[in-house]
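Marked as duplicate of an earlier ticket. Keeping the data here for the record.
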Amino acid sequence: MDKPKIIIITGPTATGKTALAVLVAKSSGGEIVSADSMQIYKHMDIGTAKPTDDERQGVPHHMIDIVMPWEDYSVARYVEEAERCVNDIHERGKLPILVGGTGLYIDSLVYGRKFTNRGDESVRRELEAEYDVIGGEAMLHKLHGFDPESSAKLHSNDKKRIVRAFEAYMTTGKTISQHNAETKSLPARYDVQKFALMLSDRAELYSRIDRRVDIMLDRGLFGEVRNLIDMGVPPDCTAMQAIGYKEMVPAVLGKCSVDFAADRIKMESRRYAKRQLTWLRRDSDVTWIMLEEDEGIAVIRKTGAIPDL
């Protein structure tokens, strides 16, 4: 039986993924499924570059505005909920277009990677308390004892992932490294055509990122972050660790200037773009769209992914 078809449009931040996806959707009768780990949160519109109603142009968008900022959200939950969206779109005879820059979300959905459970909150809290007492270096040393592969990849300041590595082993009996090795061998469960947007001039990409941050500030990013804090959203929760929010919180609390926060956002956004490119360059199935040279919709049509109308 033929695998259901899915188009993926990805690439580093600020390359215009949403605009191209809307064009593809309108040309193919498709619907968009977001693969952005921060656009899932309600009340976080400006800093996540969430598409406005005008930008969506009437195209249905899924997996946006589905949880509150203080809620925990995992890649396991994303796979479950996005899979339901993709299946529903297929059943209605439409084309799912997966759009976003969160590579882990995209790969986990496409390959059907299973997550044995969502963890144990009581175990997690105990591990977080232990981290706070003995510190990241000591926790990494303990992690090396049963999962040296993970410990070698993690930084001692990465509390969330260190705790998750312990929690996974304690609740499943398998290390995260073992689990990842098993799931990465799975074949794609969809007929996938993946496109990644990029600029050949890295300086132009960084210029785009800087301009987008300036636009976010003009649109009211400071007020959006202040509103979240006024709503009681904890500054240390997962949602508030998103680029744009984490850096702006000190400005809202009067601990730094808005200009200083803006410079930090630009710097962290550029670093994130580099990480996204590193992730994508490991994927031999990506068709690259060089924005200075190509019209994105034309490249996608040439591959036969959508009709040449």
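See parent ticket for discussion. The two ends are 28 Å apart (CA to CA).
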